[in-house]
Amino acid sequence: MSAPHTDVEQVEAANTAFYEAMERGDFEELSSLWLTPADLGVDEEYHDPADSGVISCVHPGWPVLTGRGEVLRSYALIMANTDYIQFFLTDVHVSVTGDTALVTCTENILSGGPAPDGGEELGPLVGQLVVATNVFRRTPDGWKMWSHHASPVLAENDAEEGDAGTP
């Protein structure tokens, strides 16, 4: 087993690789960062279908997605419908216990789609603040994503609008 500080550095690198793959729209790289049955020592050809829910993902506003196929389909859909995305991570905290690591962070997201007029220019950029919990598991090939859970942060003006009807 590697030294604790080395584990933290390796988990930080895996976490960064996840967000960088999203920014580049690199689906192959993103897919390689998630656990597979083989990473868990399970023969993919003979694994129990009940194990298909081993990985999970919650995107902001989405239901829980379980299983490698469902999770990766969601990322393919996001990448196909996002022309530009950039993550500025803040408040990153890494905790490693044995072969499991927990990363909490704030995703400061800047994203955009096509211009409203259908031109080749990028449309207006939109900012979003999301808190995320990423769980990693140590494998022979390094740290792999086990679960990603992201939740939007309520902005101050959203809270004021919600309080408008209260005395």
Mean pLDDT equals 86
| Oligomeric status | single chain
What composes the largest sheet? 6 strands, mixed
Give the overall shape, derived from the CA principal axes: globular
Q: Structural class of the helix and strand makeup?
A: alpha+beta
Which regions contain 5 or more consecutive residues with pLDDT less than 50?
A: none
Domain SnoaL-like: 11-153
InterPro entries: NTF2-like_dom_sf, SnoaL-like
Organism: Streptomyces shaanxiensis
Pfam families: SnoaL_3
Please tell me about this protein's structure.
This protein is of the alpha+beta class. It contains four helices and six strands; from the N terminus they run ααββαββββα. β3 and β4 form a beta hairpin. The mean pLDDT is 86.
Quick synopsis:
By secondary structure, this protein is α+β, with helices and mostly antiparallel strands. 29% of the residues lie in helices and 38% in strands. It has 4 helices and 6 strands.
